[in-house]
Write a structure and sequence with these properties.
The protein has a single domain, classed as NADH Oxidase, CATH 3.40.109. It is globular, with a radius of gyration of 19 Å. Strands 1, 2, 3, 4 and 5 form a five-stranded antiparallel sheet that branches. With 199 residues, it is α+β, with helices and mostly antiparallel strands. Helix 2 crosses helix 5 and helix 3 runs antiparallel to helix 4. It binds flavin mononucleotide (FMN). Flavin mononucleotide binds next to strand 4.
């Protein structure tokens, strides 16, 4: 079978090949404003989306709102693990303060569409979140996708305006990297793909 010649590289491809997370503590002001958020979310909305259900939901938490989020996270941790020592609770409370912007990335799940199972809707929202990360990186911002048990806490979802049936996929910490970010080498791609032929 004839193979296509390797197309020339492009700024988009080079951006994808270089994206890397920035740890929250290395993120400073300025965070993306409304226009940059619009752009990043427009990229998220380019993710594949079975049934056109548009599950992407991004909630931005900035400034003093991060203090309130910290309280909510600490309350959630106590509710889930009542024996948590105070020092650990303080760490939980301070987590959102590590970066100027925390984005709660979620998926609004439709349960009335049996042809599009919930995991596919979450996959579409996760693919959108990845596009958002790539777009933020391409605009010079740094970001890091983190998780925690609070993502599955209905009280946390409620506080942030999500429905209990929605899925919270992660906390995206965003800001401007304090220094030129490292972009560590990745494994050899050939280990992660192969051609298949029937026996
Ligand atoms: C759904 C999801 C949840 C994640 N949660 C965490 C986390 O809680 N803690 C963590 O250190 N990394 C977490 N990561 C990984 C980081 O976002 C990041 O990918 C990792 O630090 C490696 O950096 P890189 O993106 O430059 O490869 C998560 C990634 C995904 C996709």
């Amino acid at each position: 079978m004839p193979e296509a010649p390797l197309p020339p590289t492009s700024p988009l491809l080079e951006g994808l090949l270089g994206r890397a997370s920035v740890p929250p503590r290395q993120l400073r002001d300025p965070a993306p404003g409304p226009e940059a958020m619009d752009r990043a979310v427009a990229a998220a909305l380019r993710a594949p989306d079975h049934g056109g259900l548009r599950p992407w939901r991004f909630v931005c938490i900035r400034g003093e709102a991060r203090v309130a989020l910290g309280r909510i996270l600490a309350e959630s941790l106590v509710a889930r693990e009542p024996e948590t020592p105070p020092a650990r609770l303080e760490i939980e409370r301070d987590k959102p303060l590590r970066a100027p912007l925390v984005i709660a990335a979620g998926a609004a799940i439709r349960h009335d569409r049996p042809g599009v199972p919930a995991w596919e809707q979450e996959a579409a929202a996760a693919a959108g979140t990845m596009n958002l990360l790539n777009a933020l990186d391409a605009m010079g911002f740094g970001a890091c996708w983190l998780s925690s048990g609070a993502l599955r806490d209905p009280a946390v979802k409620r506080h942030l305006g999500f429905a209990e049936t929605d899925a919270l996929l992660g906390w995206i910490y965003v800001g401007t990297p304090e220094a030129d970010r490292p972009r560590p080498a990745r494994p050899e791609p050939g280990r992660y793909w192969r051609d298949w032929s029937p026996d």
